[in-house]
From TrEMBL:
<dbReference type="Pfam" id="PF00149">
    <property type="entry name" value="Metallophos"/>
</dbReference>
<dbReference type="InterPro" id="IPR029052">
    <property type="entry name" value="Metallo-depent_PP-like"/>
</dbReference>
<feature type="domain" description="Calcineurin-like phosphoesterase">
    <location>
        <begin position="19"/>
        <end position="223"/>
    </location>
</feature>
<protein>
    <submittedName>
        <fullName>Biotin transporter BioY</fullName>
    </submittedName>
</protein>
<dbReference type="InterPro" id="IPR041780">
    <property type="entry name" value="MPP_PrpE-like"/>
</dbReference>
<dbReference type="InterPro" id="IPR004843">
    <property type="entry name" value="Calcineurin-like_PHP"/>
</dbReference>
<dbReference type="InterPro" id="IPR050126">
    <property type="entry name" value="Ap4A_hydrolase"/>
</dbReference>
Amino acid sequence: MRHKPQTRSKVLSADDGVDIVGDVHGCYDEFIELLKRLGYEQTPDGTYRHPHGRKLLSLGDITSRGPYSIKMLQFFHHHVTAGLAEMVDSNHGWKVARWLDGRPVTLAHGDEKVEEEIRLYQQEYGPKKASLLREQSRRLLFSSPSHMIIKRNEKIVAVAVHAGIRDDYIGMDSPAVYTFCRYGDVAGTGPDGRPIRREWAKERKVTSPIIVWGHDPHPEPKRKNGTINIDQGCVFGGMLTAYRYPEDELVSVPAKRNYSGLTDTPLTRFKTDD
């Protein structure tokens, strides 16, 4: 077990605008297509930059299930280092980070695909480059904040988080806060082994600031009580969605296919209760 890097700042300025992207899960081709639709342009140094200085913010779960976890890890390592993007902590990110740190974790639910990608990467590029990739990825994932407070003109206007957050947790850090942000409000496990999730957004008593979250796939972006879910299950054959602030606009691109290998996906199981 190595030294855990210091957590990056959980405050992001949206004075020039911010684009928040939902769960990518290794769908790199769709991710790049979405960036181009949002107006980002690739520059000679290989980074993607917006001509108006907008920031890119990921809700986490950039790896696992899909085909290109390494490309996603490399993208965010380079762009976070360059100050062009940010990313919050997530359940898959936390699991992969602990595995990269040598901790005893069981890779499942698509995380095993990250291990396979890195194994093939080492075969192609050698152990030295693979070791550097692992360390850069470990530091990127471990240093991601539990949630991101988005400010405009020094005022809190939005919060970005992977799976959800209670309003009294905003700005706080503790094991309970991290757990809630990674997994949502979980009330145990059902007979089929799936987590029983409380609808934290449905129980929210205020509507400001807006909370943008992912983790729980819905066929379309879902607004409720000042929250908006932008996980449209790209890796399951759905869509990859971005929320643009301050425009309050949604931009989506369709998945090229269902990468998960599953026929019974969260999207096929989806039932509306509204």
